[in-house]
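Researcher: Good morning. I'm working through a list of sequences from a screen, and I'd like to move beyond sequence-only analysis. For each chain I'm collecting a predicted structure so we can compare shapes side by side. This is the next one on the list. No need for commentary yet; just the structure.
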Amino acid sequence: LQEALRLFFNEQTQIVADETTQLAVQPFIEGQFEIQTLLDQWFNLVQECKIYTHHLERPSDEHIFSNAFQNVLHTGNNYEILLQLEYIYQSEIEDMLKQRDKQLQELDAKHHREMQEVVSEPTDKYPDVYVRNLAQKHMEDKQVFYC
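Model: Good morning. Structure tokens for this chain:
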């Protein structure tokens, strides 16, 4: 029974589709409409559509990110999770910065001792080139912390 209903439904659908197509094409077959008029109308509609879609602006990446971020933020408990992560990251970064500052202070003290040693010695013991190279090494050591 189901197979018979399916076949009947398919046949009736095909008949309706054929009749609809015939009604749409009949005026052109009988010469009531000119093909060129239809083509001109179609061409004009395509041009209007192109102009319309051309003027639609693509959203900027910032706009897309903003919308996506808002959707993620306001879905479920994501807001609380992000706040917790921000707090954890903040404390970790503060610890890292404190550690870096301590290491920089230790390095500065070491550099100061080395320079004091070189400067306090007689000038013939350490040539100018040695002093310049030592100063350059000190600068390179510090740059490691800022990269």
